[in-house]
Amino acid sequence: MFDDQFERQFFSYVVDVNVAGNAVQTPVQLQILSDADFEWWWSMVFRTSGSLKLLMKEQGTGRDFIGTTASGTGSTFNGVNIDLWAGTAVANAAFPLAVPYVMPATRVYSFLLTDSSGETNVVEIVLNGFKLWPRPESTQSAQSSMQPTSSSGQ
Fold it and tell me: Among 146, 124, 116, which Cα is nearest to 52's?
């Protein structure tokens, strides 16, 4: 059994924003709490209109989570349709990440939202996963003493 020396507590980070109709790259930020790193496993979203695009950026590293190599379109890239990025609450479908992503404590993430519906878009973005609590040394010692030992005669 894999033991990465962490206790996990289910947790959800929630971002609520009203995006004005036809707004381009409305910024909203999420800061991971300082008490623990966050292991992001699922994304869910609620929006009043699917005419919404999203970009995501990690501030500490400048890492873009969404990008394109397309050129020659003559317009600014405003991200991916939000329904392709996350499962919608209406469909009761959380979108899993193929590999969980660890978001360090206190790190700031920016979401840039572009609406093309012409009306205010009420948006809720939910990142579900686990707070990672380092396992205390006494618990780690007990766990390692329970591991099977191999004999040298094999």
Answer: 116
Among 143, 59, 75, smallest CA distance to 109 is for 59
What are the extents of the domains in the chain? 7-67+76-135
**pTM (two decimals):** 0.81
> pLDDT tens digits, residue range 46-60?
999 999 999 999 998
Strands 95-103 and 6-19: unpaired
What is the CATH code of the structural domain delimited by 7-67+76-135?
2.60.120
